[in-house]
């Protein structure tokens, strides 16, 4: 950065980043503890010790998040500055609340990892889980394209490695390899899209991009959208490839079933919940905030934009995910297709949020409904993957048939799993129902020109939910209607508490969703209204070289 | 916009021509005489022993990775040291120093980890 002005860096801002810093350092400690004091101990004893130590990480994050609440406003945390570190990272309610969610998911994943011995390198394994969480936290808070990309890479590189951690299983190596190859290509395309975006706007700040696009739309007098802007359309497409890969949206989903099935169950859970959660928040930030002027119209007569592309992706994703899930026998593979389908539902919510953002009425409500859905989906999915960890520990395999008879042997956990399946289908009184309802009801608030298209998407989503009931019900049938001689044995504590916690969340937020809905709504409004100061001293004016493509792009539009 | 990308296009053409030209020249003028020795695998001039398709120990890769880490460290330290005085005059001194210390500590932990895990012992 050009040292044109005295550094405005303020070390007290680091307080807002303390969860990330804590988890980074704690990962280093775990690495050293595993090879230092615990050297030479058998694997299962190190698994328990290092795993229990790793749990201190998310617990510490909770303590840091709760400290300002306990100490009272103004103490320690200072005022909630929306933009930190030269405006690249947000310290808004969105980042704070999602730090809490990510820490909770991390704790559940660590718990599941302590269920059985699938590797020898426990220090490195738990450190990778923690560092992936750091990447997710920064990704949720990123307000600038480079930070966003770095966080995305930090998260996925840790997950590539973790997916291949079950070294004596070929499927695990295959999972890591496929994830890595697909992921690196998607990242390269994503980065290319970001560079095009920078070339067109001359800035990498999300709010700066929005401002440039709004100004250029005002200058040309067009309503917005991408018609005729070939470079802009390419940039949007490439960015959607990157996000589509992380969300496992069709047609960028092929890695997901193999990776989820081959990777150890806790890692699959972490990819399906944390990675998807953080990526979708980043997608919403980029699309709903920075690229909102390029959204285009849904109705059809005006110029096209990314809304139409995302609508096509959403429709294809939920239909394909549900139809493919019907044929699956493996629990993790079934959950992989289910997570693909849920990505499709969430993209419908993103569209609804976009259209309402444009009409200006209830922007935060719609985006908040998507965030609510996202949190509920992540919690229930981690709970469902914990069942796979249980089977892998007891039987060394995780087919749906292996759940046979668990309703008799461990009725409590079976009921909890049934609740999770009902929540994933979206049946009342679970949170899955409330979140789906909240998200799809927002479509009714969309402006009239867009409503017919969106209603079509919602109808498709409802048909898909009915289809999905079939394969989730196969889990219920295995649990309660079948008998089997083989039993995975009693569930270890690391598996049972994530399942129980997820089921409690599914029922609790199903009966009383208001607190979570409200906090997600305030998080969403913080996300959508975040602005840089009009002329920040540290943000240099766009260089003349970078400004040339802007005029070129507008000339192409004419 | 076009003139700017035009330069990149010219550079691209020049680069491709630079790479292809020697190949074309060689293909046109070089004599071709085949012999058994020329068909053998090249091992720094030493006569090849055993199969060429041997498996390498995974330790080679660990060493290569560790070397790469410290290679990158040097690459990063050098421009930092060169520009440090200028940055310090502009008032960034402490900030830049802390950044570098953080980077070095992270690398040091990586080295300690590799050492303690026994990756530096050749077995």
Count of individual helical segments of chain B: 4
General shape of chain A: globular
Mean pLDDT of chain B: 85
**In whole angstroms, how far apart are the ends of chain B?**
59 Å
Helix percent band of chain B: over 70%
Give the largest chain-chain interface (CB within 8 Å): A-B, 17 and 15 residues
Helix content of chain A: over 70%
Q: Which structural class do you get from the secondary structure elements of chain A? A: mainly alpha
Q: Could you give a short account of the major beta sheet of chain A?
A: 2 strands, antiparallel
CATH topology of chain B: Methane Monooxygenase Hydroxylase, Chain G, domain 1
Total beta strand runs of chain A: 2
What does this structure look like?
The complex is a heterodimer of chains A (558) and B (123). Helices cover 72% and strands 1% of the residues of chain A. Chain A has 558 residues and is mostly helical. Chain A has one domain (11-289, 301-529). Chain A has a two-stranded antiparallel sheet with strand order 1-2. In chain A, helix 11 runs antiparallel to helix 12. The model of chain A is unreliable at 74-78 and 535-558 (pLDDT under 50). By secondary structure, chain B is mainly α. Chain B has one domain (2-116): Up-down Bundle (Methane Monooxygenase Hydroxylase, Chain G, domain 1). Chain B is 72% helix and 0% strand. Chain B is built from four helices and no strands. The chains are: A mainly alpha (558), B mainly alpha (123). At the A-B interface, helix 1 and helix 20 of A face helix 4 of B. Chain B: One of its GO terms (molecular function) is quinone binding.
């Amino acid at each position: 950065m050009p040292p044109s002005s005295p550094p405005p860096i303020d070390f007290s801002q680091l307080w807002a980043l303390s969860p990330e810093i804590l988890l980074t350092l704690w990962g280093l400690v775990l690495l050293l503890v595993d090879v230092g004091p615990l050297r030479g101990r058998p694997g299962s004893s190190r698994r328990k010790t290092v795993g229990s130590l790793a749990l201190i990480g998310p617990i510490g994050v909770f303590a840091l998040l709760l400290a300002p609440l306990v100490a009272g406003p103004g103490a320690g945390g200072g005022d909630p500055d929306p933009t930190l570190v030269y405006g690249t990272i947000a310290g808004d309610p969105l980042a704070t609340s999602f730090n809490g969610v990510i820490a909770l998911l991390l704790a559940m994943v660590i718990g599941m990892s302590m269920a059985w011995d699938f590797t020898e390198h426990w220090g490195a394994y738990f450190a990778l889980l923690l560092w992936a969480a750091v990447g997710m936290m920064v990704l949720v808070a990123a307000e600038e394209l480079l930070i966003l990309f770095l966080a995305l890479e930090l998260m996925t590189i840790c997950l590539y490695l973790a997916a291949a951690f079950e070294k004596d299983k070929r499927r695990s190596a295959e999972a890591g390899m496929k994830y890595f190859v697909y992921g690196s290509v998607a990242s390269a395309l994503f980065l290319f899209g970001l560079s095009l975006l920078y070339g067109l706007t001359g800035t990498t700040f999300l709010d700066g991009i929005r401002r440039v696009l709004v100004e250029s739309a005002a200058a040309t007098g067009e309503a917005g959208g991408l018609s005729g802007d070939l470079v802009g359309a390419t940039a949007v497409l490439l960015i959607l490839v990157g996000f589509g890969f992380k969300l496992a949206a069709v047609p960028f989903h092929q890695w997901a079933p193999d990776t989820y099935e081959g990777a150890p169950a806790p890692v699959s859970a972490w990819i399906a919940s944390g990675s998807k959660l953080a990526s979708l928040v980043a997608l919403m930030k980029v699309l709903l905030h920075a690229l909102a002027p390029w959204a285009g119209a849904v109705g059809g007569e005006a110029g096209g934009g990314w809304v139409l592309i995302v609508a096509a992706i959403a429709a294809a994703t939920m239909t394909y995910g549900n139809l493919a899930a019907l044929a699956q026998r493996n629990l993790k593979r079934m959950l992989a297709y289910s997570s693909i389908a849920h990505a499709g539902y969430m993209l419908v919510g993103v569209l609804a949020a976009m259209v309402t953002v444009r009409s200006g009425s209830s922007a935060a409500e719609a985006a908040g409904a998507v965030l609510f859905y996202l949190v509920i989906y992540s919690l229930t999915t981690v709970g469902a993957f914990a069942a796979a960890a249980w089977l892998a520990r007891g039987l060394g395999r995780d087919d749906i048939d292996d759940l046979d008879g668990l309703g008799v042997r461990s009725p409590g956990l079976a009921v909890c799993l049934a609740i999770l399946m009902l929540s994933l289908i979206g049946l009342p009184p679970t949170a899955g129902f409330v979140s789906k309802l909240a998200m799809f009801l927002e479509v009714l608030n969309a402006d009239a020109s867009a409503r017919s298209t969106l209603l079509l998407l919602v109808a498709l989503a409802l048909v898909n939910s009915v289809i999905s009931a079939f394969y989730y019900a196969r889990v219920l049938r295995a649990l309660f209607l079948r008998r089997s001689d083989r039993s995975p044995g009693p569930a270890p504590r690391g598996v049972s508490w994530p399942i129980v916690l997820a089921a409690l969340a599914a029922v609790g937020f199903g009966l009383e969703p208001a607190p979570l809905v409200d906090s997600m709504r305030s998080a969403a409004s913080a996300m959508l209204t975040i602005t840089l100061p009009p002329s920040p001293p540290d943000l240099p004016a766009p260089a003349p070289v970078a400004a040339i493509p802007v005029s070129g792009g507008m000339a192409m539009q004419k | 916009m076009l003139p700017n990308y035009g330069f990149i296009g010219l550079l691209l053409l020049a680069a491709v021509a630079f790479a292809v030209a020697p190949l074309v020249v060689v293909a046109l003028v070089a004599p071709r005489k085949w012999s058994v020795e020329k068909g053998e695998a090249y091992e720094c001039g030493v006569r090849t022993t055993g199969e060429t398709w041997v498996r390498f120990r995974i330790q080679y890769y660990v060493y290569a990775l560790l070397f790469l880490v410290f290679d990158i460290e040097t690459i990063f330290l050098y421009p930092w040291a060169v520009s440090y005085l200028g940055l310090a005059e502009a008032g960034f001194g402490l900030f830049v120093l802390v950044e570098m210390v953080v980077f070095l500590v992270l690398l040091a932990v990586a080295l300690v980890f590799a050492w303690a895990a026994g990756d530096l012992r050749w077995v």
